[in-house]
Description:
This protein has 286 residues and is α/β, with parallel strands linked by helices. 53% of the residues lie in helices and 11% in strands.
Amino acid sequence: MASNVNPTVRRRRLGQELRRLREQKNMTAEQVAERLLVSQSKISRLENGRRSISQRDVRDLCGVYEVEDERVVESLMQMAKDSRQQGWWHAFGDIPYSVYIGLETDAESLRVYEPQIIPGLLQTHGYAEAVIAGALPESTPADIDKRVSVRTRRQDRIKDEERPLRLWAVIDEGALRRIVGNKQLMIEQLEHLVEQSHLPHVTVQVLPFDMGAHPGISGHYAILEFPDTSDSSVVYIEGVTSDLYLEKAQDVAKYSVMYEHLRAQALNVEQTRDFIEEIAKKYAAA
């Protein structure tokens, strides 16, 4: 395990290894839960990396799976210990989508479709503040500031010269037309969007209204891919009270095909920049 791998990814890799050991023994999660006198949901959460796992849990599971090689047991227990370390985002307190942040921090590429707002990684400070305040009207100024700070910190992946995130964003025209904050703020945001689109690792495409119905009509989603081939790609769908993470190969493949259709229907890069600049001009003239 590389020392720079974040705890979210460590949990995923450990969970994948524990699932592999269970499947080698031809045991179901229910059978393992019965042996350990725990709930089946706990075994599932440990395997999908959504829950911290203790060294004791690892030891007990290795016992059930009859792992005889002490080096393997010790390696898995060390992974469990490492997975309980905190990522940079924990310094900001309780963040509802901390699992996603952990995945995004380690991802090599991110494909996102956004129908309502500018993607978070491409937002200006003012736009992010206005979006969060509008989306969470009962939040305190301190909570808004915290969320904006987290969003700004996430954008470091775009600025990272050594390991930049490969970002591909398809944005619905509605996100450009929706006036968040005020028109001046929107002009600044659209100018920033065009500026970011010139980065070699950032691609922005707009899906105009006149394209009609399209595969993204059901809403926002993101596909994360990782540099280590042992880490499966993840489809992320954000919810109001809970988020959905899809990791099965057939699910990822389905959303990937949908994304290819979105990219094909959207304006190309140059057309997109012209389109965004034209909307910004209309805001300036109003």
